[in-house]
Specification:
Blueprint lengths: L1 H25 L6 E5 L21 E8 L2 H6 L7 E6 L3 E2 L12 E5 L4 E2 L12 E5 L6 E2 L15 E5 L1 E2 L14 E5 L8 H5 L22 E3 L21 E3 L20 E3 L10 H7 L3 E3 L10 H6 L5 E3 L12 H4 L5 E3 L22 E3 L21 E3 L21 E3 L21 E7 L3 E3 L11 E6 L2 E5 L8 E6 L2 E5 L11 E5 L2 E5 L12 E5 L23 E5 L18 E5 L8 H10 L6 E5 L5 E2 L12 E12 L13 E10 L7 H7 L4 E3 L5 E3 L8 E2 H8 L4 H22 L5 H20 L7 E6 L5 H13 L10 E2 L1 H4 L6 H10 L1 E8 L1 H5 L1 H16 L6 E5 L11 H7 L5 E3 L7 H20 L1
Parallel strand pairs: 2-3, 3-5, 4-6, 5-7, 7-9, 8-10, 9-11, 11-12, 12-13, 13-14, 14-15, 15-16, 16-17, 17-18, 18-19, 19-20, 20-21, 21-23, 22-24, 23-25, 24-26, 25-27, 26-28, 27-29, 29-30, 30-31, 31-32, 32-34, 33-34, 34-35, 35-36, 35-37, 39-40, 39-41, 41-42, 42-43
Antiparallel strand pairs: 1-2, 37-38
Bound molecules: 2-acetamido-2-deoxy-beta-D-glucopyranose (7 copies).
Main location: membrane
Protein name: Toll-like receptor 11
Membrane topology: Single-pass type I membrane protein
Amino acid sequence: MARPLLSFTLLCLLFLGLMSLSWMIWAWTAPDCTIGDSSLLPNISYYIPFCSLAPGLHLFASCSNVKDLAQTLTAVPQGIEALCLQGTVPFLPADAFGHFPTLQLLRLQLGTIRITSRTFQGLDQLRHLSFEHHAPCCLSLFLPPDALEPLRFLNTLSFHGYCLNYSQNIQLPISLRCLTLRHSCLTDLQELQGLFPNLVPGSSPTTRPSPWTSFLEVLDLSVNLQLSQVGSRALHGLQLRSLTLDGTPLSALDLLGSGLLHLDSLSLVATGAEKLPGNVSRYFELRALDLGRNQIQNLEDEYLLSCHSLELLSLHANGLQSLPSRFLSALPQLQRLNLSMNKLGPTLVLPGGLVSSNLRVLDLSHNELSVLPYRAFSSLPQLQELWLSGNNISNLSSESLEGLRWLKTLDLSWNQIKVLKPGWLSSLPVLTSLNLLGTHLEHISGKQLQGPHKLSHLQLGSLEMLEIYPPWPPALLSLEVQANVYIQFGVPSGEPFLFLENLTLQTSNMLLHSDNNTVHFPSLRHLTLRGCSPYIFTDCQSQRFFPQLPLLEHLHFWSDHEGTEDLHLFGMPRLRVLELGDLDFLSQPSSVKLEKLLKELPQLQVLALSNLNLGNLSASSFRDLGLLQLLLLNSEWALGLDSSLQELIPQMPQYVYFSDITFTCQCESSWVGPWATRAPNTFVYGLEKSICRANASDYSQTPLLSFLSGHCSHDAEFQSFLTSFTLVLLLTFLALLGCPKWPWLHHLRTLFHAWWWKFCGRRPRRQFHYDVFISYCEQDQAWVLEKLVPALEKPLPAGEGLRLCLPERDFGVGQDRMDAMVASMESSRATLCVLSRQALGSHWCNLELRLATYHLVAKPGIARLLLLFLEPIDRRQLHSYHRLARWLQKEDYFDVSLERVEWDAFCEQLRKRLRKAGQERED
Ligand SMILES: *[C@@H]1O[C@H](CO)[C@@H](O)[C@H](O)[C@H]1NC(C)=O
Ligand SMILES: *[C@@H]1O[C@H](CO)[C@@H](O)[C@H](O)[C@H]1NC(C)=O
Ligand SMILES: *[C@@H]1O[C@H](CO)[C@@H](O)[C@H](O)[C@H]1NC(C)=O
Ligand SMILES: *[C@@H]1O[C@H](CO)[C@@H](O)[C@H](O)[C@H]1NC(C)=O
Ligand SMILES: *[C@@H]1O[C@H](CO)[C@@H](O)[C@H](O)[C@H]1NC(C)=O
Ligand SMILES: *[C@@H]1O[C@H](CO)[C@@H](O)[C@H](O)[C@H]1NC(C)=O
Ligand SMILES: *[C@@H]1O[C@H](CO)[C@@H](O)[C@H](O)[C@H]1NC(C)=O
């Protein structure tokens, strides 16, 4: 008895070794990197270092303090879309990012770097590349001429804080649309010719490559503090949409001799300009001109007339005191005018015009305006947006807003509004968005908002208190209400907000004045609460402000640190994202609280907990983490992670972030170190930086991980977990290989399936390397190689050319056959088992069949198994016949016995089946 037991133990140990080895490989905790998916939590940048992304990109890795690039990158998952690197890396070798073929954005903040011609090889999909260095200006950067050539789809290229004056002849990809050279040491625009010869082909026609076209659309040269010259024909032949020269000492007039052929939009913010650049505007027929933060205090007629083509003009922060009377008639095309932060008050005088103005957007915020005279906007009949924030307006009447028949957006926030006269909105029939934050109003009734029929976005705010009463605007989709002391909804008979999707409330106290005691939000999807007491989600059904939120998906709740006794989230069956902050959980046993809180949120995918005083977390704090993809713990003072949490490791979400956490120094948490570095398929962020405290008066700043490794017996907890877990795996595996009679094995199997699902279902979807993995035994090899393979692999156009995986041919030399088999089955659309009597007798072939069967059962609908019989075999002889019979369909069996096969028909049928399998897997 002793001997078999010993060998069993040895076997187990061996297996254990293998398992932990493979886990090391799967782990993707990357020290110094944050890996995240910004589509899960839009606010994620608030908590963790983030890579600012281009629209449409979500999956990112942001690494800081990078010193050894190769080492940092080994831990970054392959499928990321954006990569930001900060640190000091002197040299970027060839193929430095070849592991990330899907990369679309790359931001490098690596100090003085050397780049080779082949550094960016393989980045076929890269669209955005930037080199950044922040103060002191500037580092020099050498780019070999052909360094950017592999980037065939590059769209934006940006250098910030780098001097390129050692580089010459850099070939820009012609897909490039935007080029930025900010904070660089350009002194003359002409230097661009030497740097980027295919951007500006130079003045001499002979150096011009014959079919030269201008491809760049946007050129940003802001904050080049020495850029004061424009050599002749410096931008020769260029046709730009937009040129930005903010913060340069360049005189706009110099652009006239630059050879620039076309320009729509020119930005000259903070260039010290005192006059409108009329000639430039006239020369290019400019459509947009941004002159913010200059000293243009007078708009003289002669310059104004030269600007007749402008559609957008910004004179933000120029100290303007008035507009000339010919302003609007001189600019007949003008659609957007930004006059914010000037001195046009106290009485608004807008110039009239003989021609009717086309102006759609007018920004008059922060202009010290007090009085809006009668028919103040009558010269602007087309106006759609009017921004009047931060003025001193107290009196509003329909007369002053008369004539704004097309006005959609009106911003009156932060004025001195104390009353709203009935009917004041009556002259704005199509208003959809109204901002009344920062008023002195104390009561607002829906009657005061009558007039517009389609008011959908409403913001109301008062400094102290605000009571609001129905009738609610009938088309309301989004409502924000702020008041420091309290907000009261007076809802005499429970009038519902029928279509409201977004609600934001910021106040200390929410009051409800109602005979019915309920306010209904049947369509609410996003709810944001700031400062409210948890009482708003009271246990007491009859007093609940939100009795049911059937469609709610996002709840962001920052409270005011009162107790949490009453906090109970229910009636939100669709809640996906829960952000909770600033509550005091220690007033209650935390495990009880969290458990209760999460109990009725079956769809939760994102849980972000911030500053809750959570205390000690244990397995009982969390119920079911089944669907959770992101768990974030932020800003905690004495967090303990109890050893019982290990039970939840198999269910841990894909992303676990600890940000700004001080742990309790306790050996109960000793499992977290090994977990964070070896957790399969969970990305854990922030433990390396966390410190722990022994008690309230311990200010020693001990790093958590060094405490755990120094004071706690060597991850005994985690090892024992690993051991038991591996045993479960092993036994399950053995169970699958045979002995199906032990009933308890069934439970283990279920457990294992859950795990397997978690692994496979959550992994970033991968490409299939193969169409079919072919399993056969040695005795049938000749038939397979001579008949089957040629028939299936027949290349295009003769056949469809299936990609086959044959163990003998496609497994790497020295690769463990078992590992390779599992991996190949995973990366094949389907597995085809070639069966003969000999095969069924062979141990190895049987194992492959069982593995494929297991795969099929563990991932129903995803894995595909096809059986090909070489000779007539009673199917009940198959080992897992009953299971197979349950999972396979008639079309999954192929019979080529008796030499009566028609190859073409067979192959066609097989292909059809595989195509179907492929589609099912990609769904
Ligand atoms: C993001 O989170 C912080 C606190 O964690 C909060 O103050 C802020 O309002 C949130 N922003 C949004 C847009 O939800
Ligand atoms: C590059 O620019 C810097 C800063 O203007 C200057 O000090 C340096 O001499 C320049 N080098 C070359 C080769 O022009
Ligand atoms: C710019 O325009 C003014 C008149 O508006 C004219 O006197 C002046 O010569 C022009 N300058 C250039 C460089 O074209
Ligand atoms: C006006 O310009 C300021 C400063 O650039 C900007 O913040 C503001 O959004 C602009 N207003 C509009 C309506 O675009
Ligand atoms: C705002 O307007 C009131 C009169 O309505 C006036 O007394 C006050 O001085 C004005 N404040 C500023 C800063 O212009
Ligand atoms: C409260 O109002 C809702 C909707 O208006 C109605 O369905 C419900 O019966 C009312 N309840 C009470 C107690 O009046
Ligand atoms: C509601 O808020 C979300 C997230 O901030 C936003 O994407 C959506 O457009 C908003 N919906 C409405 C109707 O304002």
